[in-house]
Amino acid sequence: MSSDGKLRNIGPKSAAWLRQTGIHNQADLEAVGALAAFIRVKRAGFKPSLNLLYALEGAILGCHWQEIPEERRQELVLAAGEEVAKLPPPRGKRVPVAGPVITLRHDEDEGTMPEPDFGFDDPAAERD
């Protein structure tokens, strides 16, 4: 933690997200852990990128987030994916269910478009 009380690697927007989930300082972050803090932010409805997860880990370890070893990043990503999958869908949003795909074929007179039927008589056709 820097001398001004800010968490390392954490910008103002991410810091606001963390505060809204009960993480106010380095001690709070260390007590919760990077993964749980990231999941709290997701659960609160925010849309953090994986960079926040790396930044949180870096803040705990006292290093820049880009210094997190690739192996550890992959561990964090896998664990985050498992935890995010357990979260309920956001309130007020329905997850669309895909319907069946139907393919229509018009084998007769391929290459020509059928006349549209709009459900009413075409006055121009009556004049012919």
TrEMBL record:
Q: Which residues form the TfoX C-terminal domain?
A: 6-77
Record region (Disordered):
104-128
Name one matching Pfam family: TfoX_C
InterPro entries reported in the protein's UniProt record: TfoX-like, TfoX_C
User: Which protein are we looking at?
Assistant: TfoX/Sxy family protein
Which species is listed as the source? Answer: Arenimonas fontis
